[in-house]
Design goal:
This protein is α+β, with helices and mostly antiparallel strands and 782 residues long. The chain contains 17 helices and 37 strands. Strands 1, 2, 3, 4, 5, 6, 7, 8, 9, 10 and 11 form an eleven-stranded mixed β-sheet that branches. It starts with a strand and ends with a strand.
């Protein structure tokens, strides 16, 4: 095989051996004589390099540049498959948009022609006869000095090409049948929704300085490839869209090689492209174009008044509105409806429906403080939007478009409610995509969310609740500030609690106190999961919920093709008859090295069976199948079992996928290396408690979490799996705060306390306190 990168001068035909005759793509068939024939076209799609069992493979799509206008786009675009070293070289040195010439190919019938709407045949390039010429624009070309007199059997590469130069057409100058690149301001859009086929479809209307408004319809196989539009006024750059005449107007549709960038439309904001593409061209000229469109749009009346988002405090019954909010929790109501609990930090003036769902099916907190509950809106999402709702994670920031506010009793709505019978305002997101109806996820750095976060951050918390449950404890105190990691010395002068309460925030104090009470009283509830990335503290899923996750995964599990790096096998459960076997996948290199006990991927098991196997294998990763490939279980379940230890991933911060893992520097697999391999944000076990302490002058409520392990003399990870550690925690708390059945108080404790500032339920600033460092126990008050 041979591979050449050449400069484009008088055209490809003048730069290649004369014994190759060109054949138009439209005339290719499985009966085509491929000897001494060549095909020319522009690369409009370049797939990833895939490492197969014995070789490399890459798929590309080329489109004939100068085909006849009477030839359909289906017949002038064709799939090209490259194998071996040629595929690897193509992946390294060919860019989307390059012109290429191929020879030495074979022709096969395309099994995907009806789906991808391309040529009914594929070109296959492999072996010694395969040859590729790549043509690029370079200054002062000298084609004669670069073209070989005959095809070579070695790889020959010229100097790298410069970045491509793109031209853009104004919307008022579009001509039917042309494939163009355009910029535009979004005046209307529909979020991607599943079409009747396998693709997702989105639609947007754009305009530019020509004042022509043009509809663009986009079909892509996944949501991420669609333009990431957050609101009307965003600016889009669309590459390789085709102008078509429809009902007397020019519309745009995406073609092969389509790509999109999106920008915030606010004047003066950062020009940061939004895209799922790993590479794209964007220079100073593009930046100027975006800023010019921003300035022009700011002086125009482009959007209807109801296109802006309004807060919950301004919502009125019998209206449709757009809402920017944060998702707190969600739960399925039935197969066609999902309940979203959202808030935006403002309170609706009308009584809102407070739907009640089972805690076992709720993702996110199951209860909130009394104050916050009044600010939470229940949104009922129906029909085609439930698929998107199922993918949402609590904590995400949302833009919900065309939401209906309607009055109705809880009985009529068909949902359980904690309220008495009467009319309550409910929010519906009906099926369909009319008026842009849908749900979009906005990133935290977007302008609408920056404003929303400022409102949420100023929201007052409830303090002084008599008896807190798990969720309330997190709700009231939140995550302590990172500055609490500062050292606190017991040599600091002792101060009485009454004096401490008068001190300034952000100070360390040393107090001598007795423990009056603590929460939670059920000490096992003090064990939590902590994410260092988003600094959230989460509850540990109970075994019943985890068992249900395993049961559902087992029902969905089906045979799948093992990845190239793993071998499929079966394993008998310890102590069971040989008839009860489970499917396992083992990394190939562990099998060849005789280390099969170090790591296995387990499919179709129950929670109990997984725990039993974890006693015999060092690391067990439960998996299911999706689309014929290995996939992780729902993130409510542990992603890894190591003996009796279970490791969880953060739902908000993880993008879990099963990949080939590598051991650490010592050749050992552990939770950290496996989490990194699977793109899981590892959660840490922590202890979280509220203590009520007292001295002769006053009482004080304090929180302890980062130093709780020092306080109790046992690690949170041990408490999660070790009964002796759990007993030790109970004995320690009994000794510090004796049960009422005993006489007398517990010992005096020297505690280091850190003061920080927060707001009470009236919105007033107030001091709060956290325990730092381990206590010193005193047998008397002296």
């Amino acid at each position: 095989m041979s591979f050449h990168i050449l400069s484009e001068g008088t055209g490809p035909s003048a730069l290649v051996p004369t014994d190759l005759s060109r054949i138009p793509v439209s005339l290719i068939s499985v009966h085509t004589d491929c000897v001494n024939r060549r095909v020319e076209g522009r690369v409009v799609h370049k797939g990833p390099l895939v490492s197969a069992v014995q070789d490399f493979i890459l798929k590309a799509v080329i489109e004939e540049k100068d085909s006849s206008p009477h030839v359909s786009s289906q017949n002038n675009s064709i799939n090209v498959f490259l194998l071996g070293a040629l595929a690897k070289k193509f992946s390294q040195d060919v860019n989307q948009g390059d012109m290429i010439l191929v020879s030495g190919f074979t022709v096969e019938k395309s099994p995907t022609a009806s789906k991808d709407r391309l040529h009914p045949c594929n070109l296959l390039l492999s072996g010694d006869s395969a040859c590729i010429y790549v043509f690029r624009e370079q200054p002062s070309p000298d084609p004669s000095s670069l073209v070989p007199s005959k095809r070579s059997s070695t790889l020959e590469v010229s100097k790298a090409a410069k970045a491509p130069k793109y031209t853009y057409v104004q919307l008022g100058d579009l001509k039917a049948g042309s494939v163009v690149n355009v910029y535009g301001v979004v005046v209307f859009f529909k979020q991607p929704f599943r079409s009747r086929g396998t693709d997702f479809c989105s639609s947007l209307k754009i305009t530019d300085q020509s004042k022509q408004r043009t509809i663009c319809t986009i079909f892509c196989d996944n949501r991420e490839k669609h333009p990431q539009i957050y609101q009307a006024g965003d600016i889009v750059r669309l590459h390789r869209v085709k102008a078509q005449l429809f009902d007397g107007s020019i519309n745009l549709v995406n073609t092969f090689g389509f790509s999109a960038l999106t920008f915030d439309g606010a004047v003066g904001g950062a020009v940061e492209p939004r895209t799922s593409s790993q590479s794209f061209h964007f220079d100073e000229e593009d930046k100027r174009t975006v800023e010019e469109l921003r300035s022009w749009a700011a002086g125009q009346v482009l959007f209807p008044q109801n296109s802006a988002s309004i807060p919950l405090s301004a919502v009125q019954p019998k209206t449709y509105f757009n809402l920017t909010c944060q998702l707190l929790a969600k739960a399925p109501v039935d197969s066609t409806c999902t309940l979203l609990k959202v808030w935006d930090g403002t309170r609706c003036p009308h009584t809102l429906l407070n739907a009640v769902v089972e805690p076992a099916v709720t993702e996110g907190p199951t209860s909130f403080s009394k104050n916050k509950e009044n600010f939470i809106a229940n949104v009922l999402v129906f029909d085609n939007h439930t698929e998107m709702a199922r993918q949402l994670k609590p904590g995400a920031f949302l833009r919900i478009n065309n939401l209906q506010a309607t009055s109705g009793s809880s009985k009529v709505l068909g949902l359980a409610s904690s309220q008495s019978e009467g009319d309550h305002l409910a929010f519906y997101l009906h099926g369909g995509t009319s008026y842009g109806r849908g749900i979009g996820v906005l990133p935290e750095n977007s302008a609408p969310i920056q404003e929303l976060k400022r409102v949420l951050d100023s929201f007052p918390v409830d303090v002084g609740v008599e008896e807190l449950n798990d969720s309330d404890l997190l709700e009231v105190w939140g995550t302590p500030p990172e500055s609490l990691e500062s050292d606190c010395s017991h040599h600091i002068k002792l101060v009485p609690l009454s004096e401490l309460k008068q001190s300034n925030p952000d100070q360390m104090h040393n107090v001598r106190v007795q423990l009056r009470s603590y929460q939670p009283r059920r000490l096992y509830q003090a064990l939590k999961l902590f994410c260092r990335k988003c600094t959230s503290i989460q509850e540990i899923p109970d075994d019943e919920l985890v068992a249900d996750v395993f049961s559902e995964a087992s029902k969905r599990s089906e045979s799948c093709t093992p990845p190239w790096w793993a071998l499929r096998g079966n394993v008998n459960l310890p102590g069971d008859s040989p008839d009860r076997t489970l499917s396992i996948y083992l990394p190939t290199h562990l099998v060849t090295e005789g280390k099969t006990k170090e790591l296995l991927f387990l499919m179709g098991s129950t929670l109990e069976e997984t725990c039993r196997l974890a006693a015999s294998y060092q690391n067990v990763v439960p998996v299911t199948s999706s689309g014929g490939h290995l996939a992780p279980l729902d993130s409510s379940a542990p992603f890894l079992f190591t003996g009796r230890k279970r490791y969880y991933g953060c739902k908000r911060c993880s993008e879990a996928a099963i990949r080939n893992p590598s051991p650490d520097g010592l050749g050992v697999f552990n939770a950290k290396t496996l989490a990194e391999a699977f793109s899981v944000q590892l959660l840490e076990f922590v202890l979280l408690m509220k203590l009520e302490v007292q001295d002769a002058t006053d009482t004080l409520e304090v929180l302890i979490w980062k130093d709780a392990e020092l306080f109790l003399g046992v690690s949170a990870e041990d408490i999660a799996v070790n009964q002796e550690a759990q007993n030790h925690m109970c004995q320690t708390m009994d000794s510090l705060c004796p049960p009422e059945s005993r006489t007398g108080r517990g010992p005096w404790l020297d505690l280091c306390l850190k003061t920080f500032r927060g707001k009470d339920d009236g919105g007033q600033d107030q001091n709060y306190y956290h325990v730092c460092n381990a206590p010193i126990i005193k047998n008397s008050s002296t």
